[in-house]
Specification:
The protein is built from 15 helices and eleven strands. The chain is α/β, with parallel strands linked by helices. The strands form three sheets. Strands 5-2-1-6-7-11-10 form a seven-stranded mixed β-sheet, sandwiched between helices. A two-stranded antiparallel ribbon has the order 3-4. A two-stranded parallel ribbon has the order 8-9. A hairpin with a 5-residue loop joins strand 3 and strand 4. The two termini are about 30 Å apart.
Length: about 325
């Protein structure tokens, strides 16, 4: 298996925070999880140092002419100058990479480049909520939705501001290597392992000054009981609020209803069990609260896009192969 190349396209004035996230997720060698890991390459239009925020300088090792050699192209966030006048060479390079079937990801205001390249015409896209009015005015052919953390069309992915870059990079890991690998990388980074793309960019406080963190006890309680029947009434009692208030708070904080959240948690647990255990699918269904294999398959296909059996076939061998490699004696060491 060859390394998956992630090409990070940078411009002058790129914000450091958004730039650091793909470097941390894809640029740190984690071949103990998946071997080979990704190869991260940086691309720019010209050699030499590029100014960034905070007085830092960037050095890209590759030219934009070669951007299409990357399997996944990540367009870093832009300075305001680059938003107002998207660099033509970067726009052309991204358009060519898309034509050649590469996966294109825009972080935050990097969405301006994808829009300028015509990749978002007639499609939903998101960007930082502060840029929503400006973006909609400049690119009326794009169906802008400034609510979600990210929007994934398969070939093109756009994201909201700053922290959403973490969410989308972990989302790419789940797509490529499964939920267990993404969860382990999140654990090492000390960040939440998963937030759905539909979650809102802005978390609104509820009436009366309560904060969305008040849902935490109910979420934790439910996460430990996914194998059992759970109802909105039970969650409301644990959260010490009415069912109507609970429904509203879930929508505000997580962007989904309580039952949709439970479904997501159950499918995610099923993914982990399919990857890391040899439990029969019927047993996985019981452990995750779906009751039987037919129910599990129906909901799993809707969320994950493939059957549980197919998911296990795609992702199960990776952790198993890594464990076997770790336990196997080295061919270079004589065994007595």
């Amino acid at each position: 298996m060859s390394e998956h190349i992630v090409g990070l396209a940078v411009t002058a004035g790129t914000p450091v925070f958004e730039l650091a996230i793909p470097c941390e997720v894809f640029g740190v060698d984690r071949s103990d999880l998946v071997d080979p890991w990704y190869e991260l390459r940086t691309y720019a239009a010209e050699p030499g140092p590029l100014p960034s925020t905070g007085g830092l300088s960037l050095y890209a090792g590759h030219h934009l002419d070669d951007l299409a050699e990357a399997d996944t192209v990540v367009v870093a966030a832009l300075s305001r100058r680059a938003q107002l006048a998207p660099p033509p060479d970067l726009v052309a390079a991204v358009r060519e990479a898309h034509r050649r079937g590469r996966r294109i990801v825009a972080l935050c205001t990097g969405t301006y480049i994808l829009a300028a390249a015509g990749l978002l015409d007639g499609r939903r896209a998101t960007t930082h909520w502060m840029n929503a009015g400006d973006f909609a005015h400049r690119f009326p052919a794009v169906e802008l939705d400034s609510g979600p953390l990210y929007i994934d069309h398969g070939d093109v992915i756009t994201t909201a501001g700053s922290g959403a870059a973490i969410d989308v990079c972990l989302h790419l890991l789940r797509q490529d290597h499964g939920a267990a690998v993404a969860a382990e990388v999140a654990r090492r980074m000390v960040v939440p392992p998963h937030r759905e793309g539909v979650q809102p960019q802005i978390t609104r406080p509820a009436v009366g000054g309560d904060r969305d963190g008040d849902l935490a006890p109910a979420l934790h309680w439910a996460a430990e009981r996914l194998d059992r029947p759970l109802t909105v009434a039970q969650l409301a009692r644990v959260a010490h609020m009415s069912e109507r208030t609970l429904m509203r708070r879930f929508r505000d904080a997580l962007g989904v209803s309580p039952l949709q959240w439970l479904l997501q948690q159950r499918v995610r647990l099923a993914q982990e069990l399919l990857e890391t255990t040899d439990l029969p699918v019927e047993e996985v269904a019981r452990e995750t609260g779906f009751g039987n294999a037919a129910n599990l398959r129906y909901h799993f296909v809707r969320v994950a896009g493939m059957s549980p059996q197919s998911y296990r076939h795609v992702f199960r061998y990776r952790p198993a192969a890594a464990a076997e490699a770790e336990q196997a004696p080295s061919a270079l060491v004589p065994q007595g």
